[in-house]
Each structure stands twice: as structure tokens, then as C-alpha cells.
Amino acid sequence: MEMPLWLDAIVAALILAGALVATIGSLGLARMPDFYMRLHGPTKASTLGVGATLVGSMLWFSTAQGSVSVQEILITVFLFATAPVSAHMMGRAALHRRVGCQEKTNGQPWDEMDRLSGRAAQSSSSGESQR
């Protein structure tokens, strides 16, 4: 089946945009100075880059085959569900391990954790004294 030229252009633009965003995310992984900054670039880029590539692929295959590809929809749902969750878990693990930041960073991420846990400890001890 012959695809219209406008659809070819949209598919090509989506695939090229996805590849460009994924490449920029990979460069961010290599160039950023600390773990938290390195975590941010690839997680955003993988979601957007692979998502755009998959949407372009879905458009092309749905036109060529005449039906929507269930596998690509499942891949997209899996990617959008797991990439943010895995990045969040890696960030939390780094906070608990107190992985260092760059010196120019305003504040340290675990200072906020200590402040919140101290506040939680104070409120629980004051709650016990009121009983």
C-alpha cells in the first residue's frame, strides 16, 4: 500500500525528532557533573525520544498493514509507566545513600530529608507527651 507524502513526512519527522532527543539525552548522561543531573537527562530523553519514535513507527505500520500494532502500543505503555518510576527509585536510593552533589548546587538533597525526618520525630514525640 502506498503511503501519502504528508504521512511519510510526519513519520520521518517523528523518528528523526525521537532520535535527536535520545542523542541529546545520551550526551547529557556523559556530560553532566553529578548523579542527580545525570539521572535527569536520560530519563526525560528516553521517554520523549523513544515515545516519538514509537508513535512514528505506529503511524507507519498502521498505514502499511491497515491495522494498529498491539505490540507497539504495549511497548509505549510499558515505557511511559516504567521510566519515571525507575528514575524515581534510583533518585531515592541515591538520597538514602547520600550520593554527593556538585559544590555549586544550592543546598544538599538530604538536608531536606533530615529536616523533614526531624520534624516527624518532633511531632511524634510531642504527640506522645500529649496523651
Automatic annotation (TrEMBL):
It comes from the Bacteria. Residues 104-131 are annotated as: Disordered. Residues 120-131 have a biased composition (Polar residues). GO terms for molecular function: sodium:proton antiporter activity. NCBIfam families: CPA3_mnhG_phaG, PRK12674.1-5. Pfam families: PhaG_MnhG_YufB. Keywords: Membrane, Transmembrane, Transmembrane helix. It comes from Halospina denitrificans. The keyword Membrane applies. The keyword Transmembrane applies. The chain crosses the membrane at residues 6-30, 42-61, 73-95. This is Multisubunit potassium/proton antiporter PhaG subunit.
